[in-house]
Amino acid sequence: MASKSSVPQYLQHLTVLEMAGLAPGPLCGQMFADYGARVIRIDRAKSPAAARAENPDTLTRGKQSLALNLKLAEGKAVLAALLAHPDVNVLVDTYRPGVLERIVDLDAVAAARAQAKTATPLVVVRLTGYGQDSPLAGHDLNYIAKAGLLSALGTEGTPPMPPINVLGDFASLALPAFAAVLVALYGHASDKRASANDSSSNNDNANAQSEQKVVQIDVNIVESLRYLAQFVSFARYNTETAMYRSDAPRGQNILDGQACPFYTVYETANAGEYLSVGALEPQFYTSFLDFLGFKAGGHNTTNANPKDTKPIEGIDEVLPNRFDRANWPLLRALFQHRLKQQPLAHWAARASRFPDACVMPVEPLAPPHLIPDAIVTGFGSSTPHGKQPQSSVGLDASKTSPPSPGLGGSKRGDTVTGKGQVLAPGTHSYVVLSELLGPCWQENYGPGDYVYQHKESNL
């Protein structure tokens, strides 16, 4: 398990405002928090019970909550002041196109940051499904349909299969948004260094970019998913590629369905227990056949050492060429018959003797508190030269423990939430405003209902 000290706090100099929203925005904010940034979720000024009933967001690790009534002028003024603050670096905009503009004037924010001679720009990352120019509403399924990837999911003769919403919301929005902000901040720092070292007219573009005080980035699921799917697109429309064929129906290629016998999922002896198989390369396919107890034959499938074959039933079968798709139904039936003879536990134990067979039991999705910290926090941490990081494969999930509540924000101690907790709106309102706007912030903005402090909080 990773400890607080093993999670690199590379972003501890950043302060991020996250407009409260649905799944991709909270995950984007959590990634910043996991690497040390101070993340302040801007909630609606309402009671915690009402907020939980509307959106029980549990992607709150390492975050603080400031609850503002953004329908009131005072609430809008407080948000504008926070965005103009030199210590605030990022705004994660989870609203539909046009909503943020009705709440805050970003040109005025840019002018205020310029007047204060803020060294770094405010990076505003706009998270949408179709982009800032589209008025259409939608959800993950609609966006991946528009991007074209949904058409490739499922089997022949059936409607495309809707996947769980990881593909669009998280893989194609939260993660690209996180990366886009880091690129923007790095680019600004690089431009500043370039302008400092080169004052010639050839560097006018770098000078102009380095002087930007508000940088807006549009990240949307449709374009991000099309970018991520380049490999699939190129392969599908390249007839020389074995993985996909443009004339093959959905689900009839190597990587996209149940037809391919060496890249698929098989049921084992116990109903509902499955084994995944991904034996693509020749050496892995050979190991997979050894794992099953078959003896390979035909083009590109011969065992390097037939004596290594370990039959399960005491017989050897000569199998047809796997790259002839006419042989796929037979191969799949043979493999399924063999795997149905033993329960999943048997095959899982046998897999340790054949590490190159590319097989893995299909495990249930682990509850969040059972996921190792090194996976939860994204990219893990570096290991000393010559030492291999501990693998999570085979990890006994029952022995794992949640990360420390301060993970990703330990410098704020008990002002942050732990893993999987519902962050009550307004838990840190007074702390945040006092630290960023000064202890006399109420004198500047006056009392009123524009800010909500969670009554159960001692902060």
UniProtKB/TrEMBL annotation:
Region: Disordered, residue numbers: 377-421
Residue ranges of coiled coil: none
A Pfam entry, by short name: CoA_transf_3
Gene Ontology molecular functions: catalytic activity
InterPro entries with a match to the protein in the record: CoA-transferase_III, CoA-Trfase_fam_III, CoA-Trfase_III_dom3_sf, CoA-Trfase_III_dom_1_sf
UniProt biased composition (Polar residues): 379-401
Domain of life: Eukaryota
Record-stated family: Belongs to the CoA-transferase III family.
PANTHER family: ALPHA-METHYLACYL-COA RACEMASE, SUCCINYL-COA--D-CITRAMALATE COA-TRANSFERASE
Name this protein carries in UniProt: Alpha-methylacyl-CoA racemase
Originating species: Geotrichum candidum
